[in-house]
Design a protein that fits this description.
The structure is a single chain. The chain has a single domain, classed as Glycosidases (TIM Barrel, Alpha-Beta Barrel). The strands form two sheets. It has an eight-stranded parallel beta barrel with strand order 1-2-3-4-5-6-7-14, surrounded by five helices. Strands 8, 9, 10, 11, 12 and 13 form a six-stranded antiparallel β-sheet that branches. Strand 1, helix 3 and strand 2 form a beta-alpha-beta unit. By secondary structure, the chain is an alpha/beta fold. It catalyses: Random endo-hydrolysis of N-acetyl-beta-D-glucosaminide (1->4)-beta-linkages in chitin and chitodextrins.
Amino acid sequence: MRGLSRRLVAVAAAAASVVAAAPSPAQAHTSSKKVAYFTQWGIYGRDFQLADVQTSGAAARLTHINYAFGPVTADGVCASADPWADWQTPFSAENSVDGVADVAGQPISGNLNQFAELKRKNPKLRVLISLGGWSGSAYFSDAALTDASRKKLVSSCIDLWIKGNLPGLTPGVAAGIIDGIDLDWEWPGSSGNAGNIIRPEDKQNFTLLAAEFRAQLDRLGRSARKHYELTAFVPAAPAKIEAGFEVNKVFKYLDFATVQGYDFHGTWEAVTNQQSALRVPAGAPDNPDFSVENTINAWIAGGAPKKKLVLGVPYYGQGWTGVSGGGDGLFQPATGPAPSVFGGGTEDYKTLKNLPAQGYTVHRDLRNGHAWLFDGTTFWTYDDPAVLLQKSLYIRAKGLGGAMMWSLDGDDSRASLTKAITAAL
């Protein structure tokens, strides 16, 4: 027992210097997937650009970037949620990956052009379009319902995002930018955002939809002499896994799946708790409870190949205020969400990392792999480099496929979280 404690303390100590000691991209291991989400809307209020992904050093350490999100419409086709962000907005020299300002009349602008520039600087980087997301999954069930509707959806997605036929621009102008499709249907067969259409047959239809994507992507890939990847974002809750996924069938069509490893608890509950612990902490009020280990074991038990499971980790925290009960703040009643920059009781790591200098104490459960901040009134559960180093070591020990990060705009300007993950992977 004492030996285990010493090893876990050593993990935390090692993480303190992991950013400075992170290997260069040329030295880093290449077998594990390092997947990160870049949000379409982050270029606005968050002022987070793909140029920041390049200058921070994150891009050179990633294998994949998922561009979030492309909705599925009521007509059962793929579309852009924001054409201005995707291919219209011009970027200044300061905000461009290549340091050159966009000019009027160029064939394509927006984030897609910035992805093209990012890939020129990082030739091994793969960019996938993520379809759906929390607010864009309402019509997935309709689109996946029949063979004809599945073919219609898949062909429209490939035409828009893979072949790059963008409305109002030269046909094929964005060809070669997007390397595959990430299915973010939240959730087949069970509730997600209010208003989502849900059917019991979503479970079988998700497999059929993945098969149709795989068939059409492979058909295009044969002519293009390229492998187009197909991935999916999948849930943590065993009930949602059971309701929506034929686990022993669907992985035949997927290159890999990114597994939700966060939002286990949050400010929709009245008691402080962990949102992303590696294992269920001692004294947890819920039984059974969520944890990374429980989630991964549920997928493996269902038949998922370990190497196709990529663990999702958060670059943000969940926070409560009005915490009473004393102690270190964990598992205590609270009055509501903590104040935060963008509201809703969530906050980026780049902001939370500064709280210890503002009177917060960092608490760690090294055995169970989670950390939190508490100042006597306000509580934040979050992942820092020490936690992510521990999770990365778990990924390697378990034989999983890698790590996924939601989302890049939550990291600091040095890409400290990304470097902590890639140092171990």
